[in-house]
Amino acid sequence: MDDNMIELRNVTKRYGPIVANANVNLSVRRGELMTLLGPSGCGKTTALRCITGQVTPDEGRVFIDGVDVTDVPTHKRELGMVFQNFALFPHMTVYENVEFPLMIRRVPQGQRREMVMDALRLIRMESYAQHYPRQLSGGQQQRVGLARALVYHPKVLLLDEPLSNLDAKLREEMRFEIRDLISRLGITALYVTHDQAEALALSDRVAVMNAGRIEQVGTPDEIYESPRSRFVADFIGLSNFIRGKVLAIERGMAIVAVNHIKLMVPAAEGTQVGQDILVFIRPNDVRLFPVDFAKAENTFEGVVHKLTYLGDTIDYRVIVAEGVQIRVQTDGKVRFNAGEAVKVCLPEARCRVILE
Amino acid sequence: MSHFTNKRQNLITFLLLSPGLAGFFGLFFYPMLVTLFRSLRPEGQTSGWTLGNYAAFLSDPDFRGIIWLTFFLAITSTFLSILLSVPLALLLRRKPVGHRLFRLTILVPITVPGLIGALGLLLFWGSRGWFNLLLLQVFRLKAPLTINYTLTGLVIFYVWHYFSYTAITTLSTLEGLDPAFEEAARVAGATPWQVLRYIVIPLIMPGILSGSVLTFMAAFGAFSIPLITGGNYRPLSVAIYKQIGIFIPARWSAASAMAMIMAALQVVFLIFYMRILRRPMA
Questions:
Q1: Which of A217, A288, B202, B214 is the most buried (most CB within 10 A)?
Q2: What is A240-355's CATH number, 2.40.50.140, 2.170.270.10, 3.40.50.720, 1.10.600.10?
Q3: What global pTM score does this model have?
Q4: What interface predicted TM-score (ipTM) does this complex get?
């Protein structure tokens, strides 16, 4: 039995010369919340539209619950969807909005009422049943949007940037509410967003998209800790990239020459001696020590070039070897001044090799 | 000081308003008032008061026919305009090949003077016009269809001349409609027909109504089209014109009384329409 609820198989979609989706393969497992993450224009909306049926792929097939739906029209795909701009029907009350999918399906009146009220209770909006969408706040509207998407127990729930029209504080609250609701219902969900924090906080797995391709699929932890490409590393959180050449590989560790310094880095699969690679490390994984600190692994002398006070952290730009600038974020306990000589430590375990 | 500037400001406001006010009173209010007075004078006199002109028209055996015809033409052509405009707008919204030209074409009937349009229509729909040539030559009909000077023909001409208002507002409302509503309905399981019926039509209804009221008002007051192409069918405006255009000496008072009745009917209709529009919808 196929356990993928949604599957895109080799999907390609072109708009004239623009390739919106290039051979995209994506599978969302039953009961999983997957995020499709990428910058605007990366093709995530096209991928979503292939799933809803608003876009027919030029090549490849789309499966929902093991059934090839590539040629099935949108209204027969049994989907629930939440929209960025809520898309509540302005001429209908909250009740009528949530009732709409049931009315279309000719669910008997009595059962219909029960299902609508259940859905409204789920999002704690039952007392707003007779309100019109324009009388609700953004957060309330989006909760109604969720109720409308869930009321007929669809096979999968699609969420298209559902929180990006809300203000920052509400967005964070809603994030947990959506996560909670989806786990409680055990429904399969695909969540499209360009907000990496949202993706990391919400998902079971994240698929990072760029320029029409899926760059990496993995748990939030894998994506954040072990990005496989420069794009993924850069898109999710802050990054240092240090260009170097692999001198040798010993017991899984690559020795990388960067100008006149040498770095020890866990070798990635496929790393070869003599190869030009990028060493990647997050700014908050880099350690700063006073200049008289005893030498440890991957520790180099440098000079603080610039620092920015960010409240809970301090952001340093340290110049190590000529032309190699490293960004460091530390808590404010030990402080260094601009122009001060420091020791910079890049813990081996926190460094990654990225092949280009 | 402030008192002085206040007065000064009032004066400036008044001066700025005065061209508009002069226009309103000179071009609209004054003629209406003259017409009202005229309708209350005995025919051909400049003094004395009478309701005889109204009584004469209201008791005229032709009166009911004229009013009925006027309403029939206006309502039928408005209704047909809506039936024509909605599918047209749905089509043009998809921006098919040549949609720009089509958009311009919609505007032609209101830019062409009624007189020219009317003559053109008579030529096109006449027994030797292109329409009948098409029927005879391509569809092999035995005899030409009579369109000109029939009631059907008059309705067709009205629709041609006045549907633009409805079509333009319907199209612009439809193009202002967020496609997300339709997407949401589709994903929720609605067929294209159901999307149209439950989502699109209700949401563009205000646009359809505001356009169709223009079509209705214009059709109600239509003059050159029925004058030239109406034959024996004479709606109110033509009947009014008959009073001053045929009788010697011209019956200005009778014409004025009819004009006042026409204006009253239009006002009543507008109030009725505003009620519908103001009903809570979206």
A1: A288
A2: 2.40.50.140
A3: 0.81
A4: 0.82
